[in-house]
Amino acid sequence: MRTLIGRWQTWAGFGIAAVLLFGVAPLVFSEFRLSLLGKFLCFAIVAVGIGLAWGRGGMLVLGQGVFFGLGGYMMGMHLKIADAQVFGNDVPDFMQIAGVRELPGYWAPFASPAFTLLAIVLVPAAIAAALGFGVFKRRVKGAYFAILSQALAAALAILLVGQTSLGGSNGLNRFRTFFGFTLNDPANRRMLYFIAAGVLLIVVAVVRQLMQSRYGELLVAVRDGEERVRFLGYDPANIKVVAYTVAALFASVAGALFAPIVGFIAPSQVGILPSIAFLIGVAIGGRTTLLGPVLGAIGVAWAQTLFSERFPSEWTYAQGLLFIVVVGFFPAGFAGLAVLFKRRRKAKDSAEAESEKEPDAEKVGATP
Predict the structure, then answer these.
(1) Which stretches of the chain are assigned E, i.e. beta strand?
(2) Which residues on adjacent β-strands are paired with residue 177?
(3) Disulfide check for 223: which of 58, 166, 198, 240 has CB 3.0–4.6 Å away?
(4) Distance between CA atoms of 344 and 334, rounded to whole angstroms?
């Protein structure tokens, strides 16, 4: 009975989220705000993966900007080639300005939409799996893993800045089409928002299924007692690799959606700062819960947009202070507070119910 109620609650939650994302938001927000919300949904997709790897697996991933950037750049390369073909050019516009007349060899495969979509899924997942096996098999964890992942993000950002064939520090921008659809058309931009919303719901459903499965239990067990899991006959490295790969896949898909929604992808979205920003949203929302990372990522991104317009220099300090307060005093995030209050209320109700069941001592003594 309890399982059936839980399933109905889950379906009801997904139904409410779908109504809000697909029905209410397009009616309430303007085209600009709806596109902005689509951008935030991309951040939420990354946050869901971080919640799985960090919240459930205990892996402090400080380099998700790497996979976010890989997905964004691969999508951007395809969009630039498609734009050049529309105007009858052999190379994208920024290459023409630089005097390049022939498309670089590693660009050519991204002229195919099918190859681009497969690369967005397979390349980051393969890199994450290879890196995960190399790191976790050597039992690298904790701060060492966090520093390593952050170093990879910094290295990729520096590498991209020096690549003129990828736009250098400016990155890839001014996308005009998306798989044959004109991005200047408001209907097509709304379509991109709907795609991002649908992907977010799918990602949340996948992570929920993983959390409810035996694998989810093993992942939590590895987080809380890795040596005990190894003693029981399981390899913690394999369990970690799966979570790390799934998180990388989600980040890549989010980056691929981010590029056409925002209209550019640059090294500034790949390095250390965006990777930490992803982490802040997850920590504030609640990394151990399912919806905490989603709400935290959207809330932090929205607050950053809102307050940075009025207080551009103060927002960075406010964001850092909020992160310190949450990590120091509310390690489970704001979603964890709700769970804590629910548990305390349940315990209080149970105590009151037990006290009502206890017979009055005087009445018992007075009974012959």
Answers:
(1) 172-173, 177-178, 181-182, 264-265
(2) 182
(3) 58
(4) 16
- Cα–Cα–Cα angle for 320, 262, 247, rounded to 5 degrees: 60
Structure tokens at 352: 């009151």
Structure tokens at 328: 């120091």
Mean of pLDDT over the chain? 85
Residues ≥6 apart with Cβ < 8 Å to 350: none
Q: Are 266 and 252 in contact (CB under 8 A)?
A: no
How many angstroms separate the CA atoms of 334 and 198, rounded? 25
Please tell me the distance from the alpha carbon of residue 262 to that of residue 43, in angstroms, as a whole number.
Answer: 12
Amino acid type, 148: L
Tokens 């299924």 -> residue:
209
Three-class DSSP category at 204? helix
CA distance 216 to 213: 5
- CA angle at residue 284 from 49 to 200, to 5 degrees? 35
Distances (CA, A) of 162 to 252, 259, 333: 22, 20, 39
Give 191-243 pLDDT, tens digit per residue.
999 999 999 999 999 999 999 899 999 999 998 888 888 888 889 999 999 99
- Convert the pLDDT of each residue in 60-116 to its tens digit: 888 899 999 999 999 999 999 999 988 888 889 888 887 788 888 889 999 999 999
Contact yes or no for 76/177 (Cβ under 8 A): no
- Long-range contacts of the stretch 229-232 (C-beta < 8 A, 24+): none
Q: Which helix (H) or strand (E) holds 276?
A: helix 272-285
